[in-house]
Structures are given as structure tokens and as C-alpha cells.
Design a protein that fits this description.
about 300 residues; alpha/beta; Arc Repressor Mutant, subunit A; D-Maltodextrin-Binding Protein, domain 2; 3 domains; five-stranded mixed sheet; three-stranded antiparallel sheet; about 40% helix; about 25% strand; elongated
């Protein structure tokens, strides 16, 4: 079945779907309200079903309209992305790749990857966004980023995930703390200390691993603060407001009055993984992903 619907109809539909107000949508589009109403009615007639339920008080999307809003949003984004990639190719570039990452990925995995890209694909543009794990998953689904470096063990349907780096955990102490690598006798020494940890929302799997470390050490931690930011953890530890456990590589690059004791004798390890959207049609994605996975 063919529909005589033009791109302008899709833009008009989305404007109304987002504003749920014909006058505001018309102002946003710089067209008259009656003209916008005619265009939407034309689109509905062509489709054979209503997209909006209208009354004197409000405008709401029908069930079909809600579905179509999501699909049209993605359709227009894919189209714009295709135009952008075509422009880059026209200018002699291979394409654009957008990375999301948790902070620890910048300490080893991403710098090494960028060196590979520079060496083997010098004509690739890239952007980098430090993001929390849940935000990266949302961005992958919306195709706002192409690759996500996350501390998760599973992702929603439609996304793929592969481990790329295994790291040890380390105990984080203020620099002046009397315990150091030489006299460290085990984590149980700190059962009466306050711990500052990554919040469970940062990564449920990661949080569970950290709890297993405490369980293995024979105590449940006193948790004084939860956060999703490494810099917050280190700053609080630096100011003697508690101690922490983090991936060992996370402290690289931070110049604070803290010290790390690597917990290399415990079985728990933290894994950094790369995730991507299997429906992403970015033409350069497969080449860059192969560089991530080849090691």
C-alpha cells in the first residue's frame, strides 16, 4: 500500500505531537493554524485513521498517533543522519562516530581506540560524551550515540554488548590514612569505617559485585554516601568523609590526596563492555567496532 505523504507532513505531525496544541505548533512552524490543521487532516485522510483526538480543551494523540510519533521521530533522525554522513563523504571524510562512555573508559580503552582510529581511519570525525550507564543505553536506543562503553552485563532487546576490558577493584583511602599497601591486612579491618560507593543505579551488576566483596570479607558496609560520579567519591575520600572501592583504573588521571590499595587477591573483577544498537546504519560503525573488539 502506497501513501502520498510528504516529508513536510511528517514535520507538521511531529510539531503537533510534541506541542499537543495546534496554535503553538503553528507558531513553531511559522505557518497559519488553519493551514496546519488542513495538512494534518490531509495526512489523516491519506492514512485512513485519526492521529489526534481533538476537543475544545485539549489535543491528545490516539494510540496509532503515539506509535507513529516514535517511528517518525526515528525516521527523520535516520534521514538527517544519512544526509550528514553523505556530506562528510562528499568532503572526503569516512564518516562520523559518536561515543558515550563512563569515566574509567577514558583512562585506557578509549585513548587506545582513538589512536587506532587516527592511524587507520584518519578521515573519521568523532565526538565523546561522558555519560552514566542508563543515559548511554537511552542514547543508544535513540541513536544519539553509536558506541557506549558501560559497566553493565545486559542491555535491552535490540542492543548488543561485548566485554572489552577486565579490571581489578581497589580500596580508596585518604593519603594520610595509616593503612597502606605494606600493612594492609584485608578489607575486614575497615568494617567500622564509612564507605562512599557508586549508587546502585550506576550499574546494578557492578553494585552487586561490590556487595559480594563485602560479603566475602564477612561484613556489611556502613554506607554514608552514594553517588554516580567518581570525582565526587574521590573528593569526599580526600576530605576524610569516608573510604571507597572503585575500579582500579578509575583513579588514573586524578590528582587528589588519595591512595589506592589494589584488591588483586579477590575473585571479583569489574568488566567494561562496549554496547551498540544492532539497527544502527551508520556506515562507519562496523569498521570502528571491529577495532574495539579485535583485542
Amino acid at each position: 500500500m502506497g501513501y502520498r505523504i510528504e516529508i513536510r507532513h511528517l514535520h507538521y505531525f511531529l510539531a503537533v505531537a510534541e506541542e499537543l496544541h495546534f496554535r503553538k505548533a503553528a507558531e513553531k512552524l511559522f505557518i497559519s493554524q488553519p493551514g496546519l490543521s488542513r495538512q494534518i487532516k490531509q495526512m489523516e485522510n491519506e492514512l485512513g485513521f485519526a492521529l489526534f483526538e481533538r476537543s475544545n480543551k485539549k489535543v491528545i494523540l490516539t494510540k496509532a498517533g503515539k506509535y507513529l510519533k516514535e517511528e517518525v521521530t526515528m525516521l527523520l533522525k535516520n534521514m538527517n543522519d544519512s544526509f550528514d554522513h553523505a556530506q562528510l563523504i562528499h568532503e572526503g571524510m569516512e564518516g562520523q562516530i559518536n561515543f558515550g562512555y563512563v569515566g574509567s573508559a577514558m583512562q585506557n580503552v578509549i585513548p587506545q581506540l582513538l589512536l587506532k582510529i587516527k592511524e587507520e581511519h584518519p578521515n573519521v570525525h568523532y565526538s565523546l560524551r561522558e555519560m552514566e550507564n542508563p543515559d548511554q543505553i537511552d542514547a543508544l536506543i535513540q541513536k544519539e550515540i553509536d558506541l557506549a562503553f558501560v559497566r553493565l552485563d545486559k542491555v535491552p532487546k535490540g542492543l548488543e554488548i561485548k566485554p572489552v576490558f577486565e579490571d581489578t577493584f581497589s580500596l580508596v583511602l585518604p593519603k594520610g590514612h595509616p593503612i597502606n599497601k605494606e600493612n594492609f591486612q584485608g578489607l575486614k579491618t575497615f568494617k567500622n569505617e564509612a564507605f562512599i560507593l557508586f549508587d546502585q543505579s550506576y550499574s546494578p551488576a557492578y553494585y552487586e559485585q561490590v556487595m559480594q566483596i563485602f560479603k566475602r570479607s564477612g561484613f556489611h558496609p556502613i554506607i554514608s554516601h552514594n553517588t554516580v560520579h567518581a570525582s565526587t567519591i574521590f573528593r569526599l575520600v580526600e576530605n576524610n568523609l569516608g573510604i571507597s572501592i572503585v575500579p582500579s583504573s578509575l583513579a588514573l588521571g586524578y590528582n587528589m590526596d588519595i591512595k589506592l590499595i589494589e584488591l588483586d587477591k579477590i575473585p571479583q573483577k569489574t568488566v567494561l563492555s562496549v554496547a551498540w544498537n544492532s539497527t544502527n546504519r551508520n556506515p562507519i560503525l562496523a569498521k570502528i567496532l571491529s577495532k574495539v573488539l579485535q583485542d
